[in-house]
């Protein structure tokens, strides 16, 4: 089956040394000092689970790039048909961020922009994001973010969908927004935004599929079938681990195809 993973990363050594990562490593049963994976490690995991394309993300933070856009671009060149990129930018330099988005958008291997709000302790309706949203619209790139609580040792409040992300969706009706990591414990807020905004999508990264909230699975089978996409958060969770009990969701073939592949291919123009 053709599968697209919309949230993966190839961490650097400096990423893996961040102190906030310890809780996430514990949750996912990994060593405190795990090896740093390379592109071939990710490709092997993809082959094991039948994943055709992974979107690998840059991580920009207030202390600098934990995974730089250049590092993502270099990794993509090892397997350009299978690895696509999500670039990241510096919220403290809005005009520099706009220029970076415009420049990187010329490389069609970058298919979106991702900013993780808890890294900055700034919710997505903060004024510093707004030039970035405009740049995304002009470049035709989706804006990807994290919603819900944080596994890492950072505040979760900035990941609450209402009012923070709702404000963005109201102010930028042309912006395609993808909320990663499901949105727990605010699932009802996530579902409300899916009903309200046709440009809002959700990915299931950071969850083994059998652990997804039941209300989200129910939405996936009905009116939300075109709005939910598969993601892993690799290397924290492998695609094989996420997919191991997909049959427990009891998805029909059409919904499974939309969820695992077609929605992502449409949203990210793959």
- pLDDT under 50 segments (min length 5)? none
Order of helices and strands: EHHHEEEHEHEHHEHEHEHEHH
| Percent of sequence in beta strands | 15-25%
Count helical runs: 12
Strand order of the largest sheet: 1-2-5-6-7-8-9-10
Helical percent range? Answer: 25-40%
CATH superfamily: Metal-dependent hydrolases
Main beta-sheet strand count, sense and barrel state: 8 strands, parallel
CATH class: Alpha Beta
Which second-level CATH architecture applies?
A: Alpha-Beta Barrel
**CATH topological fold name:** TIM Barrel
The general outline is globular
Compute the number of strand runs: 10
Query: Measured on Cα atoms, how large is the radius of gyration?
Result: 17 Å
Query: Helix/strand-derived class?
Result: alpha/beta
Distance N terminus to C terminus? 16 Å
Multimeric status of the protein: single chain
Descriptive account of the structure:
The structure is a single chain. This protein is of the alpha/beta class and 270 residues long. The protein has one domain: Metal-dependent hydrolases (TIM Barrel). It has helices at 13-16, 22-27, 39-49, 69-76, 94-105, 117-120, 130-139, 161-171, 187-196, 214-221, 239-243, 253-267, and strands spanning 3-8, 51-57, 59-61, 64-67, 83-87, 110-114, 143-146, 177-180, 200-203, 228-229. The longest helix is centred in the C-terminal third of the chain and has 15 residues, at 253-267.
């Amino acid at each position: 089956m053709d599968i697209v993973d919309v949230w993966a990363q190839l961490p650097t050594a400096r990423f893996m040394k961040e102190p906030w990562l310890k809780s996430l490593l514990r949750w996912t049963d990994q060593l405190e000092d795990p090896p740093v994976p390379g592109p071939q490690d990710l490709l092997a995991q993809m082959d094991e689970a039948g994943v055709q394309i992974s979107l690998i993300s840059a991580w920009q933070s207030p202390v600098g790039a934990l995974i730089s856009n250049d590092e993502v671009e270099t990794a993509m060149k090892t397997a350009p048909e299978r690895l696509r990129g999500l670039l990241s930018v510096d919220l403290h330099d809005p005009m520099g961020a706009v220029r970076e988005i415009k420049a990187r958008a010329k490389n069609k291997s970058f298919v979106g922009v991702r900013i993780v709000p808890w890294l900055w302790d700034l919710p997505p309706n903060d004024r510093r994001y707004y030039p970035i949203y405009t740049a995304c619209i002009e470049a035709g790139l989706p804006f990807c973010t994290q919603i819900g609580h944080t596994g890492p040792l950072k505040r979760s409040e900035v990941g609450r969908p209402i009012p923070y992300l709702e404000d963005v969706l109201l102010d930028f009706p042309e912006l395609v927004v993808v909320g990663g990591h499901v949105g727990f414990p605010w699932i009802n807020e996530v579902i409300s935004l899916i009903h309200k905004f046709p440009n809002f999508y959700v990915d299931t990264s950071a969850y083994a599929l059998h652990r997804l909230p039941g209300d989200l699975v129910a939405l996936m089978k009905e009116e939300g079938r075109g709005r939910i996409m598969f993601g892993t958060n690799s290397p924290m969770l492998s695609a094989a681990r996420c997919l191991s009990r997909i049959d427990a969701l009891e998805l029909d073939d059409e919904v499974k195809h939309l969820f695992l592949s077609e929605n992502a291919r449409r949203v990210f123009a793959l």
